[in-house]
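FW: tagging you since you asked about this chain on Friday. Here's the raw sequence from the shared folder, copied in full. Didn't touch anything.
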Amino acid sequence: MKEFVISEAKAETAVLVGLITKDQDENKTKEYLDELEFLADTAGAVTVRRFTQRLNGPSSVTYVGQGKLEEIRQFIKDEEDNEREVGMVIFDDELSAKQIRNIEKELKVKILDRTSLILDIFAMRAQTAEAKTQVELAQHRYMLPRLQRLWTHLERQGGGSGSGGGKGSVGLRGPGETQLEMDRRIILQRITLLKQRLLEIDKQKTTQRKNRGRLIRVALVGYTNVGKSTIMNLLSKSEVFAENKLFATLDTTVRKMVIDNLPFLIADTVGFIRKLPTDLVDSFKSTLDEVREADLLLHVVDISHPDFEEQIKVVEKTLSDLGCADKPSMIVFNKIDAYSWTEKEPDDLTPETKENISLESLKKTWMARMNDNCIFISAREKQNIDELRDILYKKVRELHVQKYPYNDFLYDMNEDER
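HL: got it, structure written out here
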């Protein structure tokens, strides 16, 4: 069966395509394509060109207009003439089976969308049986409505319709529909099997969580590639895999921590992203249960990212979808060492933009907005990590006393002795 996603990371070349619409201006489209390029790089592809088009919305037939599609086709042909093959074209939104079929017919190269690219990265990153099962389930759910395009070369050979059919239709109907139904049945059976496996894994995970004792649970949440795993390693002195790539962490890692006299659990979870496929959220239910069952959420934010405020909104919306919006939480602004800003000239009377705000001004703004329920750190440079530990100790201790009022701490120690 033809593959929908890249089966392994190869240094293929890619062209990116996005739309500028009334809901997504040029700057926003650029940010989305920057992220899409980072996704492509994580998957092992090198971006050689970007194409954008202004439209009211994506075309239901070819996503972009026919003229833009012809421009992309001509670019691919010119690259081939110069012996620089373009391996794939990646679209920033999810494509339907009809769109993929029409675009492939025109461009004659591999066509991916943001969802299939994310699925490919997840498949590449999955290490445990649980993660592999979750990814496979999401891939099959993605494939199911797109099966038709696999068998366009096996179309009906006979004409007419109904029981009588047309001239020569009896016995000459092509194998396309039969093969399509066979594949659909196989995938549906596989989905059912994978769901059963995940239910068993979910039961095992629930039992594990029950056996963890009367300990407060802290979960690191946030956008992908904001430094959650690095913070986890610093706080718990563990060796969780951390890399400057998207979705470096796919399998939830839980570690026991002890700060002074207080033991608790801390979990590093999968990062969120804009336009996260619904199938992935559904498939990763058991992984995200660590977030649901946490007593405290540490929302890690990359403050050096130019669009960090929208990333905060994306994470908050995902947490709301998971039913975790009301949990106790605090924001950990990471990567202050990488923050940069441009100071305005004294005679510059143009309105101040977010590029002109200093880190100190940003700190004051956010601390006032969050009622001091935030901290600014650099995990890489180990700045303010001790302060983070102190805040974490106070918050966890407060939650511990509320949840387990009759459960003694690991050691007897007065506040004055700390």
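FW: The longest helix spans residues 176-210.
HL: agreed, and The radius of gyration is 25 Å.
FW: great, closing this out.
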